[in-house]
Amino acid sequence: MAKVGIFGAGWVGLVTGVCFAELGHEVVVRDVVPEKIERLRRGEVPFHEAQVPDLLERNRERLTFTLDVDEVVDCEFLFVCVDTPPTYSGDADLSRVWRVVDELPELPGHPILVMKSTVPVGTGEKVRAGLDARGLDHVGYASNPEFLAEGHAVSDFMGPDRVVVGAFEAADTDAVASLYDGIDTPIVRTDVNSAEMIKLAANAFLMTRISFINEIANVCEATGADVVAVAAGVGLDSRLGPHFLRAGIGYGGSCFPKDSLALKQLASNSGYHFQLLSAVIEVNELQKRRVIGKLKRHLGSLHGKTVALLGLAFKPNTDDMREAPSIVLASRLLAEGADVRAWDPVADGGTLPRGVEIVPSVADAVRGADAAVIVTEWDELRGLASEETRTAMANPLIIDGRNLLDPAETRLAGFTYEGIGRQAFAGDPSPTPTP
Ligand code: UGA
Questions:
Q1: By the number of CB atoms within 10 A of the CB, which of 142, 226, 311, 322 ranks highest?
Q2: Which residue's alpha carbon is nearest to atom 16 within ligand 1?
Q3: Ligand 1 centre and the CA of 61: distance in Å?
Q4: Cα separation of 43 and 32, whole Å?
Q5: Which residue, among 297, 250, 266, 317, has the nearest Cα to 432 in the 3D structure?
Q6: What is the pLDDT of residues 162-193, one digit of tens each?
Q7: Pocket test for ligand 1, best of 206, 243, 261 (most atoms within 8 A of CB)
């Protein structure tokens, strides 16, 4: 078993830390924010992620949380798990990565610096040069990108589709790969640049699938097809597969929007215009706004109308509001003069624009509302089309931004219902396609 240092007690760093501890490694998690470290020492996880609190509790004797960089001195592996947010130019901001490199103490032996943060291709070569310039040429370097999705990050870590390791020395690749002993998965051994690109390309392809199915959904609306049936039929083709073909109101989160910009910028910095990715990003921006057109078709002007936004997190089973479509939707609704009520079972909605009323229950959100919009497909909303909701609403209109409900059952329950890429019912006010 190895001693693993983790720089960054954010979502990636903590999931990585508790999972390595679960695999039997000794883990030191170092962060620069005192409150974060104090909370973790008390056993509190600062975000909502299934299984992380249990793993933290179960592996307490193998986990140390510290502000002191010297505590990583005897670690054999030093994982970089810091944020790489976009800068104004769209490039990834690597300042936190460089801070880690700058702060590395004198390190004995041959520890390996392992990059888990998502970084542009070429970063490893630059960090390698930076380490050498600091006299740390005895420190190895590897890229080991993460493929964890929020909400099931622990199971993604423990049962990954693959582990990717790119290093400058074969021995370093083997050493990093050995940390995952006990996990039955293919190990992709490659060079550093390719490892970095695998991460960016995988996310870009997932986003492409989402924007693709969203455009198919929009064409379905205009032509009389049903995107749910279309996605099921397309996904059964073994060359295509069923994943990431759920049409909706667009992707959000801490990764896709940022990583797509970073890859687009990386390409254009090298003189290449990544046209497909640019379209994927634009389609996603437009998709978030389509709900407004749907509401207007049913309600006319939205001025003075009460709209309930149900679900605020960028996806279910997380409290993460970063780049959530709910933020764009709420802003647009306020701009249209609507009264916006918002509910989420976990996310606090703190990043929503001023003027949105956050309410504690679905019942509070829909009471007297002219429309309810399903923004995030929380399980709690599966029973939305009830008699209580129908009688509580001023106008029983449901716009289902995630195709969560069954259209026929919802209409049978007395609601006017519209999903994404599904047909408006003949009895609904306007069968005209959304522009
Ligand atoms: C994503 C990737 O799935 C992970 O593999 C990757 O490691 C991670 O980004 C990252 O780079 O760190 P995550 O952002 O947690 O993970 O969430 P996803 O489950 O991928 O969902 C992203 C967004 O796409 C959500 O807003 C979701 O609602 C949307 N989505 C997803 C769709 O609209 N349709 C789909 O079919 C799937």
A1: 311
A2: 149
A3: 33
A4: 18
A5: 297
A6: 999 999 999 999 999 999 999 999 999 999 99
A7: 206
